[in-house]
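Continuing the series of single-chain predictions for the mutant panel. This is the parent chain; the variants come on the following pages.
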Amino acid sequence: MINKFSLFLLVLLACSFNLAAQTFYVSSYNYNKGGSDIYKVDITAEGVKSTKMIDCSPRDQYFSIAMNKNKLFWLNGSQIYVADVKENSIENCKLLFSGMSGSNSLTLGADNKLYYCSSYLFSTDINTGKSEALVYSITLPAEMSVFIKKTFTWPRTRA
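Parent structure:
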C-alpha cells in the first residue's frame, strides 16, 4: 500500500514531466468539391490544431484510412490506395489493390496487414498482396474493429 508521502512524491514527479504531443489523421467528405479532405490533427499541451493536407487529386475519396509510419492507406470504392505522408501533404498516390468491393473500416496491424470488412472480415498483406477472408458475419459491426495491444479484435456478433 502506498503511504501519503509516497503518493505525494509520485504526483509531484508526474506533474514535472511535459505532456507529449499526439498526431492523427481524419478524413472528411467535402460536398463542395465532390471528394474528401484529409486533416492532420495535433494535440499538444497548448490545445488542438488541425491542418488540411494537400492531397494528390481534389476528387479523391478517402472513405476509410489507415496509417503505417509515413504511409497512408485508404479505401476508395473497391480499391485500396497508398501514398507517402510528408509534413502537410500526401504524395506519390498509387493504387495498391483492387477488388475490395463494398469494404469499409480499414485498419493496419503491426503484422503489416490491412484489415477491412464487407460481409467478411478480410486481411491483405501490404508486402505480398495476399488476401484472406477471416470471418463471415453479415452482422459484423465493422466500425468497431480495432487493435488492442497489437492484437486485432472485434465485438462478437449479437445473437
